[in-house]
Design brief:
Layout (H helix, E strand, L loop, with lengths): L3 H11 L5 E6 L5 E6 L7 E3 L4 E6 L9 E6 L11 E9 L2 E9 L9 E5 L2 E6 L11 E4 L4 E5 L2
Parallel strand pairs: 1-11
Antiparallel strand pairs: 1-4, 2-3, 2-5, 5-6, 6-7, 7-10, 8-9, 8-11
Keywords: Signal
Pfam family, one: Bys1
InterPro entries: CetA-like
Length: 150
């Protein structure tokens, strides 16, 4: 019985809090976000001029990672509208994140970024994919923040 408390304390100290995946909208128009792993989450509206969406960083047992898919169209995920995709994967004490598009570039002409407190920034000054890899890594305790119209 006397070993129970040290074991519980050791386990509790080895579990660290994880950050959030955050989507910030500084644009003058709303957009829509779906959290996608093995299944598709409910559509979330991110209002213009300061709206945001946030979820705790998590894993998917089937796919491993999560993609936050953003479209400018209300039903864009299901109609082939251009998608901005922020993907992340938890790997123990680290979170790997990247930025990509499919079916076009919904923020073409707008400055977009993905930042994390101790990870490198992904910066698309014109909303278009620059050359090179966009994969970055940070501590999983930090937020990963996508900002549209940065």
């Amino acid at each position: 019985m006397r070993y129970t408390i040290p074991v519980v304390l050791a386990l509790a100290s080895s579990v660290s809090a994880v950050g959030n995946a955050v989507v910030k909208n500084k644009c003058s128009f709303p957009f829509y976000v779906w959290s996608v792993g093995a299944s598709v989450g409910a559509r979330q509206t991110v209002n213009a001029n300061g709206g945001n969406y946030s979820e705790v960083l998590h894993s998917d047992a089937t796919t491993g990672g999560i993609s936050l898919k953003i479209t400018l169209a209300n039903d864009g995920l299901y109609t082939g509208a251009p998608e901005q995709i922020i993907s992340y994967t938890l790997d123990g004490a680290q979170v790997w994140y990247d930025l990509s598009t499919v079916f076009g570039e919904p923020f073409n002409g707008k400055h977009i970024t993905v930042t994390s407190k101790d990870g490198p920034t992904i910066d698309w000054p014109t909303g278009s994919h620059p050359a090179g890899s966009q994969v970055r890594v940070s501590s999983s305790g930090n937020d990963v923040v996508f900002t549209a119209c940065a």
